[in-house]
Amino acid sequence: MTVRRVLNNGCVARLLAMVIVLGIALGVTALVEHLNAPKPVAPLLIGHAPATSTGHVDVSQEADDDGYAPAEDWPNACDFLTDQDIRSILPQLTGPIQRTPSDVQIDVFDVSGQTAGENIDVPDANCKITFHLPNSDNDSDYPSNGESEIDVGVDAVGDPATLQQNVQSDSDDSQSVEQGCAYRAGYTDYLCGHLQVGVSLSSLDVTDRSDEDTPVDRIQVGGKVTTFHSGDSAAESKFEDTYVTPELVKAMLAKLAQ
Predict the structure, then answer these.
(1) Does residue 139 surpass a pLDDT of 50?
(2) Is this prediction's pTM over 0.85?
(3) Where does residue 52 rank: exposed (0-12), middle (13-18), buried (19+ CB within 10 A)?
């Protein structure tokens, strides 16, 4: 009896040891999986344009007989938004900001509302601004992944009456005023006396992929976080145009003040 009890106790001890080892192994496995699991990222925080202008853009160039300033005197589109502007509006952005200027050929109208019969070739009238936000899907094998983009375009520089006619010929939509500049609902360009300039937010890549089955974009304005699921691109674009684009416009138009 005594020997048998000893043997049984030994079996129990070994069984308990195996259970403990198995439990530790399972616990370690669960811990490793937890540590390796993608962590939810912070929502994209939307800030504000700087309180004061971060630069000056001169659009006081004298117009030629056709009502437009010489193309070589038009401002560089990349001068309208500085790094400080963009980082103030997107405060989580710490990486590099790239600017790619490009020349454009612009169709113009004369003061009678007719086409002027010529195009203007303007150097650096467009600017593509690209960057990667901290929680973007930045895959080194696919450099375009996770790239956010802002586009700025100088549409016209010249006599205010000519530019006004240009806008009227392009559309009969009613105009509203933003910081002393006129704009048309549904458009992205602003008429500011001697200048017509536009800005568009092509994309903000802020996708949270911590849950591979349901990736989402989360954007915070003030203390409120709004979540956009896959397929909500139209709603998200409208949201960004409501809260982000106006801040870009404020930073741009502030540079026109003397």
Answers:
(1) no
(2) no
(3) exposed
